[in-house]
Specification:
The complex is a heterotetramer of chains A (about 350), B (about 160), C (about 375) and D (about 160). Chain A has about 350 residues and is mostly helical. Helices cover about 70% and strands about 0% of the residues of chain A. Chain A is globular and about 65 Å long. By secondary structure, chain D is α+β, with helices and mostly antiparallel strands. Chain D has two domains: about 30 residues; about 100 residues, 2-Layer Sandwich (Alpha-Beta Plaits). Chain D is built from three helices and seven strands, in the order H-E-E-H-E-E-H-E-E-E. The chains are: A mainly alpha (about 350), B alpha/beta (about 160), C alpha+beta (about 375), D alpha+beta (about 160).
Chain lengths: ~350, ~160, ~375, ~160
């Protein structure tokens, strides 16, 4: 059967046969780098188009429908426009930091792709502290936001960046706690092992209420961490015009834009891995016939379907809710999510230790 | 209703601290007061138990070419009791006391009249241009002799 | 780097909100002084779209000046025109036929709903929810189409003339209005689902921008702003014009005085307007839609003032006539101008996000303020 | 705040949010509710009273109904209409005022309909044309009476 794993192994074998071990590895590194960049470009196009269609349908509109079949090439046209636009640097901006911020932002998003398992045995880097790595790297993006806000020499940008700082640092805790819930249940920080642990059933179904609560908290926290509505205070269109990226235009703005969607993808992918078993197909007890049909669906499809489900939910949030205020945002975190998360983690630990899960 | 309001006004104004001239007016009773007496009369009208004219719904000025007339429309907040107060100002040096501390809506309306008619409100907390751009002091668009340097109709 | 940030006071930050800003709904310029994110002072700078309509009207005849007032509060254009027509009629003592009165009231109430619906969407957008804006436009579009069919235009209808209305109702009018009523009633419940009951929206608006009753009176803040503060200031009840005294409707008054109270007042007013339309739509008297008037109107020397209740509050027209064919002086008392003057008082001590919510709840229309 | 109240807050909040999400979710899946008008592809239906621009109808003999009385010019608040008259010799030898040029400045027009109402002979009316954008504003100055047109018989 042709699977993503099979294709990659064939490529690897072919390269090793031709070039020898060392050169082949070097070539593979380059290929992986190219893949990440290409993947990001495609991801940006797909997700922006998806967001437009989702928002349009919720807003009783048609959405993009002119460029290409069903408007599918609209985002490509927009990308071309953004790339060909002049990138202005405001007078009085700190040029070095101003240019650094979008690059830093996108690099962080790219690094986050490393431990994600796209299909059975397809992973860029199966680091043994996978989820910890994700938590650690994702908090670097707040630096990019702060740099962007500070270096723009614009008060709106500064306010947006400062809000973002407080917000990301706070919500990191809740996201971490809900990730820990799964780590406790799986007994490993390694992404591949967390998925393996869900062989007999996804954690969402096996882990009782604590996992459900953890999933809800995780969704809320990553929505906040990726600066998306209703937590888009760093951008807060109606208050701060565009927040930290007010002064950015052209390609540098496009990088911020892309990074936002990449972060949403990564956050949803991690969510899918933790709670819905990553590429693991849906298995129901002893229904062997059903389970075999589910196995027949390629693992990459399973992974992307789950990821896009989470992405859809995050988009659904965005197009339904009003925005919170900065103090309410922090109140939600410190007074509701964090205590709940801690209690939830305790309950989950008890369950894990006692082995009460299915 | 108008007639009863007028009788009330007659009795109330007899006790007014300053001389006030009461006329029937075309629609509502009108009071004419000297600009110097206005700051004494205004709190009296607002706080008098029988009148309680605590809602100022309009404040404007009319340029009569020979003089300016300030027009204040006052009303009671809980029932209809409209009284119009007028005060005649000198056209060259229009000065009148501000009532922004009595009816706070007057703060913006007086700023508007200040720039459009050039009336100087003594005691106004923040008498600046509100609508016109900076550097327009002294040219008052709503006066009858104002000529716009850029006249769209003649263009 | 941040020289101007650290101006005068070391701790304060001066921020220009506008003239071009997503939440000022036009070209309002607010200079706000901040300490952190807390607002110390709001200083509105007006005049970016001041057209001096009052001066313009001094050179227009009494038939012509009415159409200009559509350009002030363009969301309640009918009601503005109505106020002007009333003032001219009062001066000339024209008896408006019953049919014209009912048509005018119907149009006023439809306009009020259209205006409040748009405000609802804009308010949602101000607090960060974008979807309600599009839903609001769907209902507004229905009203606009009704207006277009009868009045010939969607926004600046110029349907009121001294003595009545410009032409008779379109034959489809009653049917389409009834369609709209049944459609809108179901949508109002959706509005509640999307915003009224939403916890985030409540958090954003309750106890924000509190205006007490005596302050509302002192600032002359009329309309839903005044009624949200517990002040029954509806001109339709206080000094009824046209056939309002024959109609059954309630004045929606809330006591809290915060943004949410103003929100509830407007939501209640939409329902009241619907009930007014329902009372009238099947009882439009037959007869003339316009009283006979002279071709050239000359107002007798004197002063005339008429008041109407627009979607934003009390709108006054003050005409000083010297007996000629054009007004000697005309003054429009626009509700937005007085409501705006309370903004500084209401927003002190709140956050930037609250300022946006307060501005949304004031329902500012900038051409109305600037005139 | 008691613990019960704390969880009550969370529960109520979640429920109110779920109500909103149900509403947007409904619209996401019900595409027949979409109201977008695909304007250039599907021409809009305009009401017959829609005011787009002032036109002067001519009949098949190239005759219009305008006597050049300038009532519309006087009624217009913006100086949109300019009427130039000329003197024509009627068959019985009398000099008679007639319309030479009806100049209409579309760029100044606010479609207020006052000229149509003022016209005593119903010579002008509003058309439903609304696509008025041009590259040069001088193209918006129109002469409404067609060249060589004359007054319809019987219109005074």
């Amino acid at each position: 059967m042709i699977s993503l794993e099979f294709i990659l192994q064939s490529v690897d074998r072919w390269l090793r046969d031709r070039l020898g071990h060392e050169v082949a590895v070097a070539v593979e590194y380059v290929l992986v780098g190219l893949f990440v960049i290409l993947f990001f470009a495609v991801l940006g196009l797909v997700l922006v188009f998806m967001e437009r269609k989702v928002s349009a349908w919720m807003q009783v509109r048609l959405g993009p429908n002119r460029v290409g079949p069903g408007g599918t090439l609209q985002t490509l046209a927009d990308t071309i426009k953004l790339v060909s636009k002049e990138g202005l640097t405001p007078a009085g901006a700190d040029r070095f930091l101003f240019n650094l911020a979008p690059v830093l932002m996108i690099v962080v998003s790219m690094l986050l792709l490393a431990p994600i398992a796209f299909a059975r045995n397809v992973q860029l880097w199966d680091i043994n502290i996978g989820v910890l790595y994700v938590s650690a790297i994702s908090s670097v993006s707040v630096l990019a936001v702060l740099i962007a806000g500070w270096s723009s020499n614009n008060k709106y940008s500064l306010l947006g960046a400062m809000r973002s700082g407080a917000q990301i640092v706070s919500y990191e805790l809740s996201a971490g706690l809900s990730v820990l819930t799964i780590v406790v249940l799986s007994g490993s920080l390694q992404v591949s092992q967390i998925i393996e642990a869900q062989q007999t059933g996804w954690w969402l179904f096996r882990g009782h209420v604590p996992v459900l609560v953890a999933m809800i908290i995780y969704l809320i926290a990553v929505t906040a961490e990726t600066n998306r509505a209703p937590f888009d205070l760093a951008e807060a269109e109606s208050e701060l015009t565009a927040g930290f990226h007010t002064e950015y235009s052209g390609m540098r703005f496009a990088l911020f834009f892309l990074a936002e969607y990449a972060n949403v993808f990564v956050a949803s992918a991690i969510g899918a891995i933790l709670f819905l078993g990553g590429w693991m197909p849906l298995h129901l007890g002893n229904w062997d016939a059903f389970n075999r049909i589910m196995d027949w669906i390629p693992s990459s499809i399973w992974f992307f379907a789950k990821t896009f489900f989470f992405i859809f939910v995050i988009m659904w949030f965005r197009w339904t809710f009003p925005r919170l205020r900065i103090d309410q945002l922090l109140e939600l975190e410190w007074k509701y999510l964090l205590p709940l998360g801690i209690v939830n983690l305790l309950v989950a630990t008890t369950i894990a230790v006692a082995g009460w899960y299915f | 209703m108008n007639a009863s309001l007028e009788t009330t006004l007659q009795s109330v104004l007899a006790a007014a601290p300053v001389p006030v001239q009461l006329t029937a007016g075309s629609q509502w009773p009108e009071l004419v007061v000297a600009p110097d007496d206005w700051p004494t009369l205004a709190p009296f009208l607002r706080d008098h138990a029988e009148l309680r004219l605590d809602f100022m719904f309009c404040l404007t000025c009319v340029d009569w070419k020979t003089h300016l007339t300030m027009v204040y429309h006052l009303n009671n907040s809980s029932c209809e009791r409209v009284v119009v107060v007028k005060s005649v100002l000198d056209r060259q040096q229009p000065r009148v006391a501000s009532v922004a501390n009595i009816w706070r809506t007057a703060e913006f309306h007086e700023r508007e009249v200040y720039e459009l008619f050039g009336v100087h409100f003594v005691g106004h907390p923040d008498l600046r241009l509100l609508i016109l751009p900076e550097g327009w002091e002294g040219r008052n668009p709503l006066r009858k002799d104002f000529e716009d340097p850029v006249n769209m109709i003649r263009l | 780097m941040f020289k101007e940030v650290l101006a005068e006071d070391q701790d304060c930050l001066t921020l220009n909100v506008g003239p071009q800003h997503p939440s000022t709904h036009g070209v309002l310029h607010l200079v706000i002084t901040l300490k952190g994110e807390t607002i110390l002072r709001v200083d509105p700078h007006l005049g970016y779209i001041h057209r001096s309509i009052e001066k313009m009207c001094e050179s227009l005849s009494y038939r012509q000046f009415i159409y200009v007032t559509s350009r002030m509060d363009y969301l309640s254009a009918h009601i503005n025109n109505h106020g002007c027509a009333l003032c001219v009629e009062k001066a000339l003592q024209i008896e408006v036929p019953q049919r014209a009165q009912v048509i005018r009231v119907l149009m006023d109430e439809l306009t009020r709903i259209a205006s409040h619906v748009l405000w609802w969407g804009a308010m949602a957008m101000d607090v960060g929810a974008i979807t309600p804006f599009f839903h609001a436009f769907r209902e507004r579009e229905m009203i606009n189409e009704i207006m277009e069919e009868t009045c010939g235009a969607r926004l600046t209808m110029n349907y009121m003339v001294p003595g009545g209305v410009m032409y008779d109702l379109h034959p489809n009018f009653q049917r389409r209005v009834k369609q709209f009523i049944s459609f809108f009633k179901s949508k109002l419940n959706e509005y509640d689902e999307l915003l009224t009951d939403n916890i985030i929206f409540k958090q954003r608006t309750q106890h924000i921008g509190v205006l007490r009753r005596e302050d509302a009176i002192s600032f002359g803040a009329t309309g839903p702003v005044g009624r949200g503060s517990g002040w029954a200031c509806d001109v339709r009840k206080r000094a009824p014009y046209e056939c309002y005294h024959q109609l059954q409707f309630e004045q929606v008054v809330e006591q809290a005085g915060d943004c949410y109270a103003r929100y509830l007042v407007r939501m209640g007013e939409m329902r009241q307007s619907l009930s007014i339309i329902e009372q009238l739509i099947d009882n439009i008297p037959s007869g003339d839609y316009q009283a006979k008037t002279k071709a050239v109107l000359k107002l007798p020397k004197g002063e005339y003032y008429s008041r109407v209740e627009t979607a934003r509050g009390e709108f006054g027209v003050y005409i000083v006539s010297d007996g000629g064919t054009t007004p000697y002086r005309i003054k429009f008392r626009s509700p937005g101008f007085s409501n705006l003057s309370a903004l500084d008082h209401m927003s002190r001590g709140h956050k930037i996000g609250d300022l946006v919510a307060i501005m949304g709840s004031l329902d500012l229309v900038i051409p109305d303020i600037d005139r | 705040m008691t613990l019960k109240q704390y969880f009550r807050n969370i529960w109520d909040g979640m429920r109110s949010l779920a109500a909103g999400m149900r509403r947007t979710g409904y619209y996401f899946f019900h595409h027949k509710e979409i109201i977008t008008q695909e304007y250039p592809d599907v021409p809009p239906r305009l009401a017959e009273r829609f005011r787009g621009e002032v036109v002067m109808p001519h009949n098949e003999n190239n005759e219009h109904r305008c006597t050049g009385c300038t009532a519309c010019e006087l009624a217009c608040p913006n100086g949109t209409i300019k009427i130039i008259t000329k003197y024509e010799i009627t068959p019985d030898g009398k000099k008679k005022k007639a319309l030479d040029k009806f100049i209409y400045h579309l760029e100044l027009c606010t479609m207020c309909n006052l000229c149509i109402i003022a016209c005593p002979t119903d010579a002008i009316k509003m058309s439903q044309a609304f696509e008025h954008s041009v590259f040069d504003r001088s193209q918006l100055i129109k002469i409404l009476n067609k060249p060589g047109s004359r007054l319809m018989e019987g219109v005074e």
